[in-house]
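[retry 2/3] DUF6551 family protein: previous attempt timed out, resubmitting with same input.
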Amino acid sequence: MNALEIAKFLLDETGKKTGRKGTTQDINDVVAKVIAAEFPDTSSDLLREAMWIVNDILSKDEHFRLRKIDPVNITGLDIDTPENGEPICERVNPAALYVDPAYQRQIGARGLRQIRKIVEAWDWNKFKPPICAYAVHDGVTVLKVLDGQHTAIAAASHPEVDFIPIMIVEASATSQQAAAFVGQNTERLQVTPLQLHQSSLVARDLDAMTIDLVCQQAGVTVLRHPGAGGAAKPGQTVAINAIAALINKRGNTQSREILEVLAKAGFAPILKDQIKAVELLLTSEEYSTVLKSDDLVAAIRGTWIADLDAAKQMALAQKWPLWRSLAIVWNRKCKKSRSTSFKTMRAA
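[retry 2/3] DUF6551 family protein: success.
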């Protein structure tokens, strides 16, 4: 094969494996693997010529052409002046950094595995500087990690890493640091809604404080993290997103009444489908006009496993959401309870 034929083969194989949707690095990785597998004995001069052809073709492909950073149209945006100055960058000993448990979760088994993987496959090309802020601890100025504690711990654990670059932002108070943490992690999947809620509470976020107040009034406790194996005590919950959505839709008073039913019924933990089921029963015209909160509490207390099984069967048969099926199961139990009470009264 000549250089042109080799180049065509490389491009064809690359297209098959990436669909021409990968990054330039993806393309380079595939080309290297194809060369190693298909052309182990081909002369380096011929391969070099083939690669020139490949690079020339890719350079004309819009997908792989180097792009300049251009500003977007910002017409109509209400742009605020930045409250803080731009971050500064420093090199520090990672073992000299601190973590504040007020808004940072403890490292569990999963986090430890992640740290060990980072240490084992340390790669400066993949390194992201932790975000830190100055704070006073026991009368001494220290640097707290707002985001990137796994990276910092991995660096401190690595025998060949003595210093790492960090980015330092202005956030002296704990509430500011928590707010900065929320800002850094709102779009990151690995940070849980529970952790963001806790950080928002520390930052005195109004929405988070409202959720906390409504839950306290209803006798519900929002856990900082799920218990081992999902274990929980009556009235505890990790369904922070469901509660936030409920308050946003129904307001504080109705939301408190809905959550109070589940707390009084002793659910452990209180789940999203339970919240949505009670919401339907206490707010829809179909059910709320004849159903009382106390009757619902009495009907659903202590029978969760059986009720869940019945709701699952109904949801499967009718292709309904589980929460809707659960509401129907609980409404039927309330009807049966009312019917029994009425017969007892008539007999008396």
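[retry 2/3] DUF6551 family protein: Residues 3-64 form one domain.
[retry 2/3] clearing retry counter.
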